[in-house]
Amino acid sequence: MTRLARIVQDALDHLGWTADIVDDEASGQSHLATDAFIDDQPCGVFIDTDERLEAISVYIYPPFQVKPAYYSEACLLINAINVQARHGHLEILPKTGKVRLVFFAGIEGVSPTGLFVVRMLQFGDAILSRWMESLAAVAITGRPAEKVLAELADKEAAAEQAKADGDRTAPAAASNAANPCTLH
Fold first, then answer.
1. Which long-range contacts (CB under 8 A, 24 or more apart) does 63-67 make?
2. 3-state SS assignment for residue 175
3. Eight-state DSSP code of residue 36
4. Measured between alpha carbons, how far is 97 from 13 in angstroms, rounded to an integer?
5. How far apart are CA 119 and CA 95, in angstroms?
């Protein structure tokens, strides 16, 4: 097993996931494909490694795609999300309209552990948990991005006020569809 594939395996072990890694030692590349629930939605999760590039990539696909008529509104929303995201970025695949969240890490000169990959997945969970409903509203129904962003801002302001008033609620956990476990 390649060094980077072992790091991904460590992450799987940490999460209690049982997905198989396809490891091609000759090319120095590995690939993992599995599913996880994020914000109660089944998402495709792919983790690729490349020894030559010394890189780990995580791709998370929500369970919907952008309808062609709503592409420009979806782009507006995704741009707003990407401005706010500290790690990773959302993109729309042009031929299919699929939305994906991408995390890429060049690891030249460092020795990451499986926990590094776990954190990449947790960042994905945090971003999509916050934005899944908004993304779907724009991508599937064509709601204007500006309106969705304003509604989310109002909702978050109300939640902050409730929190300040002592009403605390915990976010939902993400889990692997085949083997439920949380990313937290």
1. 64/99, 64/135, 64/136, 64/139, 64/140, 65/96, 65/97, 65/98, 65/99, 65/139, 66/92, 66/97, 66/98, 66/99, 66/138, 66/139, 67/97, 67/139, 67/140, 67/142
2. strand
3. E
4. 33
5. 30
pLDDT tens, residue by residue, 80-127? 999 998 889 999 999 999 999 999 999 999 999 999 999 999 999 999
Structure tokens at 128: 């999509």
Q: Which token pair is 169?
A: 């609620």
**How many other C-beta atoms lie within 10 A of the C-beta of residue 4?**
25
Amino acid, single-letter form, for residue 45: V
Host H or E run for residue 132 = helix 114-141
| Sequence-ordered list of residues with C-beta below 8 angstroms from that of 1, at least 6 positions apart, any chain | 9, 21, 23, 25, 30
- Residue 172 dihedral angles phi and psi, to the nearest 5°: -70, 145
| pTM (2 d.p.) | 0.86
CB–CB of 97/118 below 8 Å? no
